[in-house]
Write a structure and sequence with these properties.
The protein has helices at about 5-25, 40-70, 85-115, 125-150, 155, 160-175, 280-295, 295-305, 310-315, 325-340; strands spanning about 180-185, 190-195, 200, 205, 210-220, 225, 230-235, 240-245, 250-260, 270-275. The protein is α+β, with helices and mostly antiparallel strands and about 350 residues long. Bound molecules: copper (II) ion.
Length: about 350
């Protein structure tokens, strides 16, 4: 083996390892971790940054070292020595990357699996992991968020974080275990539909602590649903429904970005996910129902055909003290003259 084993090499190796480990934890490249899945992805990213930093320093260090060490001496016009090869060295520099790549493959597959990537329709995964995720991972997520904020984005994020954590803790106890929301991508917007309430919105409101199952569709061309703060992304494919699951862990507003070039205004296809406490979320759902009930277009288009007149008028007359029975009587009395 021609690998030098001097003290200098050992010291350089130790320094290189320490610098790589430090930078892997302090690269500051990730936005705040706002879902329970985010710390998993960040763990993988940190390890890859550690390895990448080590390799970068090793390769660049060897190049810079060689510039000086093997610089042509003045007056030396001879050729360099002929080197046939070095089997042990070649085995070493093949096996080490192979082990690294295999290790990252197994680790990332494990994370993909634990995020439900293998079978997003299998809700038992979410149910089984829910209690442990909430008990064990949620404080971790909050702490991770604090650390990231403090070191990375001190100016903008740190003041919000204590409040976010405070708000997110009681949210755990009363949030539903999971919720399915339809997300339709179209040029150039996202339309979110809440199945139970029928609320339709251009922004995604989610209660913190609830496993959100997005049922993603595309109305025209390829789009992709991406929330960097949640570390999740999924394609929206015309004719092929796709799924995406995540659990918001911090109260706040985060950008939803279309991550698939979908047309000339692709860059403007942005909205936001608004993670709030279950109480705020329920209040928002209620406000949306009132808003849609009060919409005249909706009342004509939907309610006139699907509901009896007294039912769809009820929200309007309630403040006047007219009850549904009275309304029904009034309607019956006037129905015949106007029915023709
Ligand atoms: Cu798009």
């Amino acid at each position: 083996m021609n690998i030098p084993g001097s003290i200098t090499t050992l010291l350089v190796g130790i320094v290189l390892t320490i610098v790589s480990l430090w930078y892997g934890q302090n690269h500051g490249l990730m936005p705040v971790a706002a879902s329970t899945d985010a710390p998993l992805v960040d763990g993988l990213f940190d390890i890859m940054m550690t390895i990448g930093t080590g390799l970068f320093l090793l390769v660049q260090g060897a190049i810079v070292y060689s510039f000086f060490k093997f610089r042509r001496k003045p007056g030396d016009d001879t050729d360099g020595p002929y080197i046939e090869g070095n089997i042990p060295l070649e085995i070493l520099w093949t096996s080490i990357p192979a082990v690294i790549v295999l290790g990252i493959a197994v680790y990332s597959f494990d994370i993909y699996n634990s995020m439900g990537g293998l079978d997003p329709m299998d809700h038992s995964v979410a149910h089984h992991s829910q209690p442990t995720h909430e008990m064990a991972n949620m404080p971790g997520a909050a702490i991770a968020g604090t650390l990231t904020d403090a070191t990375v984005d001190a100016a903008s994020a740190t003041p919000e974080t204590p409040a976010e954590i405070k708000e997110s803790v009681p949210a755990m106890t009363s949030a539903p275990a999971e919720m399915t929301v339809q997300a339709a991508g179209l040029q150039y917007a996202w339309i979110f539909t809440y199945p139970d309430s029928g609320v339709v919105a251009g922004e995604l409101h989610v209660p913190v602590g609830t496993r959100i199952n997005l049922a993603i569709s595309a109305n025209d061309v390829l789009h992709a649903f991406w929330v960097p703060e949640y570390r999740v992304k999924q394609d929206a494919i015309p004719g092929t429904p796709t799924q995406l699951s995540f659990t918001p862990s911090l109260v706040g507003e985060y950008p939803v970005i279309c991550a698939e070039l979908c047309g000339p205004y692709h860059g403007a296809m942005k909205t936001k996910v608004i993670a709030e406490t279950p109480a705020d979320f329920n209040a928002w759902i209620a406000s949306q129902q009132v808003a849609s009930a009060a919409g005249l277009d909706q009342a004509i288009a939907l309610t006139a055909t699907e509901k009896p007149v007294d039912q769809f008028l009820a929200p309007f007359v309630a403040p006047l003290g007219v009850d549904a029975a009275t309304l029904q009587q009034l309607h019956s009395a006037h129905a015949h003259p106007s029915a023709s």
